[in-house]
Each structure stands twice: as structure tokens, then as C-alpha cells.
Amino acid sequence: MYEQMNRQTDMIEEIKAKRELMINSANSLGFTSDVTIKYSQELDKLINEYQKAMEGTSRPNDEIKFAFKQMIMIWPKLLV
User: Which of 26, 29, 58, 80 is the most buried (most CB within 10 A)?
Assistant: First the structure.
């Protein structure tokens, strides 16, 4: 469990760093520069890898979101 959390944190930090590089490149070289596009593609890849790594994990937030959605669906029926 600890290793997984550590890996998630590392992946998020890597995504943040790549995003920062992309933004800086876009600001200095333009949004359509080869360097900016390269960073954008690398960022996409990192995000996809992160999403794949998170697919099988059970996160408490997912359970909370599910419960909240269920409540939202029930509220209108209770108010009628």
C-alpha cells in the first residue's frame, strides 16, 4: 500500500513538472512550437499512464462520490 501511494505521488510530481515545462515553453516559444507540442505529448502520455495505474485501485474518494451521486438521485424523489 505504501509503495503504491509513493508511486502515485511520484507520478503526480512528474506530471506537474512536465506541465510546468509545457506552460513555460508555450509562453516563451508559442503554443504551436515543436518543443511545446513535444512537452504536451509527453504530458499526455504521463497522464494516461497515471490513469491506467489508478484504474484498479480502490480510493475512498470514489466511494464518497458514488454515495453523493446516489443521494442526489434520491433527493428529488423525497421532495415530491
Answer: 26
